Amino acid sequence: MDTASDREPRQERSRVTRARLLDAAVGCLAERGVSGATVGAVAERAGVSRGAAQHHFPTREGLLLAALRHMVESRSADLRRRADAVPAGPERTEAVVQMVVDAFSGPDFDAALQLWAAAASDPALRERVIPLEEQVGRAVHHAVVELLGADESIPGNREAVQATLDLARGLGLANLLTDDTARRRRVVAQWAVMLDRTLREPLPSTRSPRSTTKR
Amino acid sequence: MDTASDREPRQERSRVTRARLLDAAVGCLAERGVSGATVGAVAERAGVSRGAAQHHFPTREGLLLAALRHMVESRSADLRRRADAVPAGPERTEAVVQMVVDAFSGPDFDAALQLWAAAASDPALRERVIPLEEQVGRAVHHAVVELLGADESIPGNREAVQATLDLARGLGLANLLTDDTARRRRVVAQWAVMLDRTLREPLPSTRSPRSTTKR
To answer: What gap in Å lies between CA A124 and CA B185, rounded to an integer?
Structure first.
C-alpha cells in the first residue's frame, strides 16, 4: 500500500507531466494547427511517453480543450500580475491598452486562433470553446474597467472598452503571419490617446445626466 | 477546327464554371476549413464534375489561392460600389466604419480566416497569402482616407485609420463562433464617434505644425 509520502511526489510528478503536456499542446497548436496537434505529437514535444500522455488525455479533443483552459487561466493570471504594475498618471491608459493587446497575442493567441478556426466547422468543439472565450472576454473587460476607472454608466464608455478588446483581437490576427510589432506600437499609442480622451471628456451628446454625480 | 463563334460560348461556359468553383471554394472553406475544401468537395458543391474542376484547378493549393484572390477582388469591388453610396454629413463617419467592418465579415472573412490559420503552419502558403492580404489592407485603408478626407499629415490620423481596420478584423473574429450583430452595431457607433472626433479635432499635443495649412 502507498504511504502518504509516496503519494505526494507521485502527485507532484503527475502535475508536472500534465503542465508539460499542456504547454506542448499550446506550442503544437500555434505552430502546426489542430491537425498537427495529435496526442502523439504533443507527447513527443513534451518529452513524455505516449502512454503517459494518453493516461492524462485519452482524446485529442480533451487535450486541446484542457490546453485552451490552461491558456485562459494563464492569461488571467498574467493580467492580474500586470495590473499591479500599471503606472499611475498620464501613461496609465496606454499601459492598460498595451496589456490588453498583449493578452491577445503571442503563442497563446496563435494557438487559440487555431482552435477557433477548427471550432467554426465543428459544432461540438464550438459549444465548448465559446464559454471559455466568454470567460476571457469578461475577465479582460473587467480588468480594463477597474484599471482605468471607466464609468460605464456614461453612454459610450462600455463600448469604448469593448472596442479595445476587439482592436486587440484584430491586432493579434494581423500579427499571425507577419511581424507587426512596430506598426502595432503606433496603433496602441494612438488608440490610448483616443480612449483616454473619451473616458475623461465624454462628448456632450453622449454624456448621461447621471455622469456628474457618479464620478 | 473551332470557329470564333464556337469558341466564344465555350470560353463563356468556362468562365462561369470557374466562377462557380471559386464561390464553392469560399463556401467550403468558411464551413469546413482547409481540410474540408478538397477539389472534390468543391466540385460537388459547385455542381461541376471532378474532372472539370481538376482541369481548372489541378491542385488544391491553386484552387484555394484563386479563391482568396477572388475574395480580395470581390471585396474591393464591393468597397468601390458602397463608397458611391456613403452619405454626406454627420452620418458619414459611421457609414464608412460600417463599410470597413462589413469588408472583414461574413463568409468571405470566415473563409479567409481558415486560410490564414492554415498559412500560420505552412510557410509556402504564407508567402502567397501575405501579398494578397496586404493588397486588401492597402485598398481599404486608401478608401477610408479618401472617404473621410482624413489628413494623414496630422500625427495620429494614419494610426486612427489603421486602428479602424484592426478593429474590423477583431470584430470579424468575434463574430466567427457566435452571432455578434447587436454588440457589433454598438461598438461601430462608438468607434465612429471617437474616430470622427480625432479626425475633426486632433488633440493639441498630437497636432503637427503643418496641420493648419494643409486642411
So the answer is: 28
Nearest chain A residue to B199, by CA:
A194
Buried b (16+ CB within 10 A) or exposed e, A34-51: beebbbebbbebbebeee
Q: Is residue A215 part of a domain?
A: no
In this structure, is the dihedral angle defined by the CA atoms of residues B165, B166, B167 and B172, taken in order, positive or negative? positive
Output phi, psi for A166, to 5 deg.
Answer: -65, -40
Q: How far apart are the first and last CA of chain A?
A: 64
Residue appearing with cell numbers 488608440: A191
For residue B49, give the C-alpha cell.
Answer: 464534375
Task: Nearest chain A residue to B130 by CA: give it.
Answer: A177
- Rounded to whole angstroms, the Cα distance separating B152 from B164 reads 14
Chain B residues within an 8 Å CB radius of A172 = 170
Q: Is residue A120 part of a domain?
A: yes
| B107-164 per-position pLDDT tens digit | 999 999 999 999 999 999 999 999 999 988 999 999 999 999 999 999 999 999 999 9
Asked if residues B93 and B192 have their Cβ atoms less than 8 Å apart, the reply is yes
**Any domain includes A214:** no
Residue A164 lies in a domain: yes
- CA dist A193 and B195 (Å) reads 11
| Domains in chain A, number | 1
Gap between the Cα atoms of B144 and B121, Å rounded: 32
CATH number, domain with residue A10: 1.10.357.10
Whether the ipTM is more than 0.85: the answer is: yes
17-36 in chain B: CB under 8 A from chain A: 30-33, 35-36
Does residue A140 contact residue A165 with C-beta atoms inside 8 Å? yes
Give the domain range for residue B138: 4-214
